[in-house]
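Lecture notes, unit on protein representations.

Consider one protein chain, 355 amino acids long.
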Amino acid sequence: MNYAAQIKRLLNIAIGVEASDLHISVGHKPILRITRKLIKLEKEKIIVSQNSEDMAFALMDERQKEKFLREKEIDFAYDFDNIARFRVNVFFQRGTISIAFRLIPAEIKTIEELNLPSIVHKFSEANQGFVLITGASSQGKSTTLACLINEINNNREEHIITIEDPIEYIFKDNKSIIDQREVYHDTLSFSRALRSSLREDPDVIMVGELRDLETIATAITAAETGHLVFATLHTNSASQTIHRIVDVFPSFQQNQIRAQLTGSLLGIVSQRLIPQIKGGFIPACEIMFANPAVNNLIRENKIHEIPSVIETSREEGMISLNQSLHDLVINKKISQEIALKYSLDPKDLISRLKK
């Protein structure tokens, strides 16, 4: 059997029905995720062990196969005949191989097309500082990051370096020069590439994920020393994000890190994708800018008070999650039931909706 052709056929089906994911798992028929629902491809045969192994190896080159067999899992990007790109994760489960494909849209959308608040433009207009895009897995962080990088690319003459694992969106140089580095392919680690980037004359640095203390410390230093740094983190709010960054460091360093953040942090976008009434998803965002009040709270280790500053700083462009959910309900984008499900403080949201 031509396993490469079989993969392409399944990926064509996924693209045709606008699936976000394709799953190959032994003992099951191929499964698509469409608007977060898992749907079996009933006309396909059940995947057997040899079938999934051959499909997985058809996707990988020799270097990737060696890494997969050594580490038992691997992430990489798969360019599908210039039609689309997929982020692929191959992993072992109960001794057999499974494959998860995530569709990466070919076109990088704008802030307006993504239905993000227009104030998000402000982050792409900055010349220096640290910007974090946060949220749980599959909440659109990489898409928002790509949108901001591409906005800079289209409007400013900058040298942009991205460090990703794997490279997802492919940028086309416009006004900027963009160098995209893939961890394990172009560099050995995020931290190593980030340290190296400071000697590569960048204006803007994008770090796909802040995974360890060294990467976080270097990203903050890069922002302090005159660069515009974008990164993602798996956290659910602005205050949780700052806690996570500070808590990575040993206690004797935490005061220093808080001080560095007050001098480098521009802001945080914490987002989640909410099911719309009409179908599809729309982002609800908490947006925090590091104004003097926020910086004082970080410096004094009163991070738990940051939500109150966000609530009282709407004229500066800050948005609380509940305010974002409220606006989406009022504008009939999402239902009240769904908004309450995604709120971190449902009682407060009910109170807002009654006004």
